[in-house]
Amino acid sequence: MSGSGPHAGSAFTFLPRGAAIQEFNVAGHNIVQNFPEAALYELIPHPHFGETVGRTTNRIKGAVLHNLNSNTYHLNANDGEHSLHGGPTGWGKRTWEGPQKVERRGKDGIFFRHVSKDGEEGFPGTVEARVWYVAGMEKGKTVLDVEYEVELVGDECEETVVGVTNHSYFNLNFPAPTVEGTICTLGTTLYQEITSDGIPTGKITTYPSLPSTPNTPFILGATEPDPDDCFIMNSDPASIPLDTRSLPLQTIATMRHPHTGLHLEIDSTEPAFQFYCGRFVDVPECDTSQGVRVEKRGKRCGICVEPSRYVNAPGREEWRGMCRLRKGEVFGSRTVYRAWKD
Questions:
Q1: Residue 271 burial class via C-beta count within 10 angstroms: exposed 0-12, middle 13-18, buried 19 and up
Q2: 128 has which bridge partners?
Q3: What is the pLDDT of residues 58-104, one digit of tens each?
Q4: Where in the sequence numbering do the catalytic residues fall?
Q5: Which residues pair with 232 in a beta bridge?
Q6: CA separation for the pair 207, 230 (Å, rounded)
Q7: Contact 20/50 with Cβ under 8 angstroms?
Q8: What does the DSSP assignment read for 129-188?
Q9: Is the CA virtual torsion 319, 325, 330, 333 positive or negative?
Q10: pLDDT one-digit tens code per residue, 221-246
Q11: pTM exceeds 0.85 for this model
């Protein structure tokens, strides 16, 4: 495990910008989309390759928060009129402190820390975010255990809203440019019904174009199915704690590719996850600082599985409990990735 930059013999590399996962190597294959050097993440920021997303995840309707600290907060919009992934310069675009080598759960790990100031992207309150990456091997599987924590550390207000996830794009179809032929399962059939601009209607229902039974395999073709939706593991928002780490890990998604023999399983304590097949990715060819050509990436270059709270949870009072952070409280979540090759 390496803090930044490629390192021979290491399964993982991470970057301070966005506390990002740069490499996830399994049997000699890097299964995440990336750039070979940190400067390119700043030059081409829009795909969110490997980023730690925050101060909130996904969309907030109208980029506004009502009735928080008895105030209304207008956020920086970056998805039409909405706020997406914490705003134009959310946590994925910030330089985190780290990597620092630490011990976590009795194992060697990598730690990143970021202090997000009051008013950053319009959000109230100074918060401290923490990420731990712990790598290991279990029965021949490469494992990455990821833990998130956020605390309200400033005195500017009594409450704020938070959410954290990772935005890696997985491609098990190496070296092909798309995920065509990947066989997936999802741990639920429920999702948040949304409007044409990605805002939940408030209805949680069965997803219309995937298998109607959880954990039933389906194949990603050249263009279909093409979900970009938030799937729901826990449909009772009142029961979702701010810190989900005390809850059991649940398998939210699996994927495998018959041509490469590569497999990935994603387990999380989170109540929901975005499943996205990269329909909006449009990364042009570019060159590194050493003049090495980096190939373009386009639609379906990877699959994102983003464990999280509900979309627009900060913007709906009946869902806000799962993401409202008050003084003295801790937001937390945990996700475990397991990958292997036949």
A1: buried
A2: 115, 151
A3: 999 999 999 999 999 999 999 999 999 999 999 999 999 999 999 99
A4: 167
A5: 272
A6: 10
A7: yes
A8: EEEEEEEEEETTEEEEEEEEEEEE--SS-SEEE---EE---B--STTSSS-TT-EEEES-
A9: positive
A10: 999 999 999 999 999 999 999 999 99
A11: yes
